[in-house]
Amino acid sequence: MSQVIDDCLSGKVSAHYQTGHPHAYLNVMYMGEVSVCKILVDPMGKISEFKSRTKPYPQTLKDAIVQYFMFEASFSLMFAEDNVDKDDIYYVCGHYFRSISCLNQVLFALNEEYCINEKKAVRMIDGFFIKPRDYKNRIDKIITLLSADRDITREGINMLKELISETEMLLVK
């Protein structure tokens, strides 16, 4: 646990394949779990010590998450755009999901909140102060536009491109 916290405090973000985490299990999720845990027993004070290192939200971690995942959101969107006309909706769907997951990570970091799971992340973001307008409804709409109909899927991709652009604008504030 100590090494994970050290890595996060120094801005080292790592992603690992993990069943039940369709985007990835990020090392920062572990730090977030420590941050929100309720300590029931800690006779040696180790968990308390680890927990104390999670607040305030580290600026180096925030910067690393924003940089890494803003790049990946745009990069994945590029592949979705480039493949919308290639009759491979499965592949486009994967890039849709990755782009949205990356935006979620950025928005959690901008709000100095730990994202400990993909479940309900979009709904949680809707309650954040720093976010694109009407985030959840727009994400829901983007997902529903994923279709074998290329024109409909392209509409969703364009909406996702707008969300990425709006999120980038939040970085300059």
Q: What's the quick description here?
A:
The chain has 173 residues and is mostly helical. It has helices spanning 2-9, 27-36, 46-52, 59-83, 89-110, 121-126, 135-144, 150-171; strands spanning 15-18, 21-26. It has one domain (2-171).
Walkthrough of the structure:
It holds the Pfam family DUF4037. The protein is 64% helix and 6% strand. By secondary structure, the protein is mainly alpha-helical. The chain has one domain (2-171). The protein has a two-stranded antiparallel sheet with strand order 1-2. A hairpin with a 2-residue loop joins strand 1 and strand 2. Helix 4 (59-83) runs antiparallel to helix 5 and helix 5 (89-110) packs parallel to helix 8 (150-171). The longest helix is centred in the middle third of the chain and has 25 residues, at 59-83. The chain is elongated, with a radius of gyration of 17 Å. The model has no long low-confidence stretch (mean pLDDT 94).
